[in-house]
Amino acid sequence: MKSIYVCVLILVFVAFLGLAMSDEPTLVGGNRCTWGPSYWCKNAETAKECSITAEHCAERYGGFKEQ
Q1: Other CB atoms closer than 10 Å to residue 40's CB: what's the count?
Q2: Cα–Cα dist 53/15, whole Å
Q3: Residue 44's pLDDT is what?
Q4: 3-class SS letters over the chain
Q5: Among 8, 20, 46, 61, which one is most buried in terms of CB atoms within 10 A?
Q6: CA separation for the pair 43, 47 (Å, rounded)
Q7: Distance (Å, whole) CA 52 – CA 45
Q8: pLDDT tens, position by position, for the chain (67 residues)?
C-alpha cells in the first residue's frame, strides 16, 4: 500500500516539474485560426492557413470576404 502512495507522489512531482519547465504559455487569441470565420474566410490564403476549404467558406459564410 505504501508503494502506491510513493508512485502517486512521484507522478505528481513529475507532472509539476513538466509544467514548471514548459515554454512560455500560449496567449489567448495568439493562434489566428481561433478568431473564427471572419478570419478563416477572409481570403484563400487565410482559409488555407487554417485548413479550411473554399467550399466550406462558400457553403457556410457566402464565400471569401475579400475578393
Answers
A1: 24
A2: 38
A3: 92
A4: CHHHHHHHHHHHHHHHHHHHCCCCCCCCCCCHHHCCHHHHCCCHHHHHHCCCCHHHHHHHHCCCCCC
A5: 46
A6: 6
A7: 10
A8: 677 776 566 766 566 656 555 567 778 888 999 999 999 899 999 999 999 999 999 999 888 877 5
